[in-house]
């Protein structure tokens, strides 16, 4: 049970959080996406609100409701996510990239519904921009930047690599090799990494995990 009255550690702070999947159009009726439910990002938004922050929640398409009081910005594609992130991040004290951004999008989006043709279809995909790396490399008004890393193997090494290579301040590593944790689940277990420190958060509800992540963040901004 999360106590309703939390010390207002984030009073006067603005936190921008990305959540959910992105959708990359193939034609007017089809897209590439992933199973992200948005639950973790929405739980982070709720926790930041509880601690008194002003919260911008930039969200891909999800079925859950945004917490009352957030500024919800709906996006679909990674390119839209990048535009909104670069709009809000420089006006934020912290930026948390929890969205499951599609790594690739279709090189061309068909203007009309594609017709079925041969027995095989090859789609050419091109790499999407790395949203959080753009934010973390802002030259002016760079917010404290927190990433997520969902991994099925070598979790610590991959997460620490992303912390460094993307120029982040903190990363939340998620071992998604167990299907009841992480993607689309109600529970999660994370390891938080900074450049010189780490903290294990054992399995708990996404609500409880989110509160701890936000409390850790609040101590550092
Ligand atoms: N991320 C992003 N833009 C992308 C891809 C990822 O902002 N195009 C962010 C995610 O929101 C997350 C972090 O980068 O905070 C790590 O995402 P992840 O998919 O684990 O890392 P990638 O760099 O895409 O590497 P890979 O998928 O190959 O493991
Ligand atoms: Ca990826």
TrEMBL record:
GO biological process: coenzyme A biosynthetic process; pantothenate catabolic process
Domain of life: Bacteria
GO molecular function per UniProt: FMN binding; metal ion binding; phosphopantothenate--cysteine ligase activity; phosphopantothenoylcysteine decarboxylase activity
Record-listed CTP binding positions: 97-99, 103, 113, 129-132, 148, 162, 166
Cofactor(s) needed: Mg(2+); FMN
Reaction(s) the record says it catalyses: (R)-4'-phosphopantothenate + L-cysteine + CTP = N-[(R)-4-phosphopantothenoyl]-L-cysteine + CMP + diphosphate + H(+); N-[(R)-4-phosphopantothenoyl]-L-cysteine + H(+) = (R)-4'-phosphopantetheine + CO2
Record gene name: dfp
Region (Phosphopantothenate--cysteine ligase): 15-221
Full-sequence portion shown in this chain: 177 to 397 of 397
E.C. designation(s): 4.1.1.36, 6.3.2.5
Cofactor note: Binds 1 FMN per subunit.
Organism: Pseudoalteromonas translucida (strain TAC 125)
Protein known as: Coenzyme A biosynthesis bifunctional protein CoaBC
DNA/pantothenate metabolism flavoprotein C-terminal domain location: 10-219
Family: In the N-terminal section; belongs to the HFCD (homo-oligomeric flavin containing Cys decarboxylase) superfamily.
Keyword Transmembrane: no
Annotated keywords: Decarboxylase, Flavoprotein, FMN, Ligase, Lyase, Magnesium, Metal-binding, Multifunctional enzyme
Record function comment: Catalyzes two steps in the biosynthesis of coenzyme A. In the first step cysteine is conjugated to 4'-phosphopantothenate to form 4-phosphopantothenoylcysteine, in the latter compound is decarboxylated to form 4'-phosphopantotheine. Catalyzes two sequential steps in the biosynthesis of coenzyme A. In the first step cysteine is conjugated to 4'-phosphopantothenate to form 4-phosphopantothenoylcysteine. In the second step the latter compound is decarboxylated to form 4'-phosphopantotheine.
One GO location term (cellular component): phosphopantothenoylcysteine decarboxylase complex
Pathway(s) this gene product operates in, as recorded in its UniProt entry: Cofactor biosynthesis; coenzyme A biosynthesis; CoA from (R)-pantothenate: step 3/5; Cofactor biosynthesis; coenzyme A biosynthesis; CoA from (R)-pantothenate: step 2/5
């Amino acid at each position: 049970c999360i106590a309703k009255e939390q010390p207002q550690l984030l009073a006067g702070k603005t936190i921008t959080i990305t959540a959910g999947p992105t959708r990359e159009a193939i034609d007017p009726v089809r897209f590439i996406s992933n199973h992200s439910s948005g639950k973790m990002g929405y739980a982070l938004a709720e926790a930041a609100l509880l601690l008194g922050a002003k919260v911008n929640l930039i969200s891909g398409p999800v079925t859950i409701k945004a917490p009352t009081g957030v500024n919800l910005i709906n996006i679909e594609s990674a390119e839209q996510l990048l535009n909104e992130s670069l709009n809000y991040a420089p006006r934020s004290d912290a930026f948390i990239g929890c969205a499951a951004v599609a790594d690739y999008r279709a090189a061309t989006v068909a203007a009309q519904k594609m017709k079925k043709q041969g027995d095989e279809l090859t789609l050419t995909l091109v790499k999407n921009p790395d949203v959080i790396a753009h934010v973390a490399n802002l030259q002016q008004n760079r917010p404290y930047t927190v990433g997520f890393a969902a991994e099925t193997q070598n979790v610590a090494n991959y997460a620490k690599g992303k912390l460094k290579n993307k120029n982040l301040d903190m990363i939340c590593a998620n071992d998604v090799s167990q299907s009841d944790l992480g993607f689309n689940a109600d529970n999660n277990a994370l390891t938080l990494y900074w450049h010189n420190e780490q903290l294990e958060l054992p399995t708990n509800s996404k609500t409880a995990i989110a509160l701890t992540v936000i409390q850790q963040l609040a101590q550092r901004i």
